[in-house]
Amino acid sequence: EAKQRVVNAKEAARAIDEVAANHEAVVAFSKAERELDRGDFARALGGFRSALQLGHPEPAACHAECGGCLEELSRWAEAAAEYGWAIGLRPAHALYRSSRGYALKELGKLQAAAGDFAQALALDPEDEDAAEQLSAVQVSIGAARLSKLRLQVGRRRTAAAKEMARLAAALPAAVAAAVSEVGGLEVVAAL
User: Fold this and answer.
1) Which residues contact 92 (CB under 8 A, 6 or more apart)?
2) What is the number of other CB atoms lying within 10 angstroms of the CB of residue 24?
3) Residue (of 50, 57, 46) closest to 18 by Cα position
4) What's the pLDDT score for residue 10?
5) Mean pLDDT score of the chain, rounded to an integer?
6) What DSSP line would sit under 149-171, residue for residue?
């Protein structure tokens, strides 16, 4: 019975430590939210990261908030990574996917952004922002493809024009050589 009391006391101590750690993490998260409201995104980012390190009970929310702060700081690659962590923890959360899509769009990764916006819409068909972003990204992808095709056609036209100019320049010399070989005026008359 004494051993059981020791085991129970150890378990109770662990539970108390866990509650205390969660409390510290929740307090850190709350402080970070206040920094966010004040527009101090760098301090808010530090606070959300502290909440994560302290074992906040909602790590996906912490990662998403870090992503939002990083967006405000125009640190798009880091923002996309934080949203990726949030999605890994809560894959069915449409806003996390839409947020990562936005960061990817800013990085110029349009195909990946389109995928995230499409998944966000699949999870939440009423998400008008995701629908607008998906449409904008699809237009950008189409414009980029069209531009690439125009460039390819332009290069082909330039190459063809150079070859035609070379042939045209060589033609009078070839005609003159043929005329002199065959005997002059009869060939010219035949042309």
Assistant:
1) 123
2) 16
3) 57
4) 62
5) 83
6) HHHHHHHHHHHHHHHHHHHHHHH
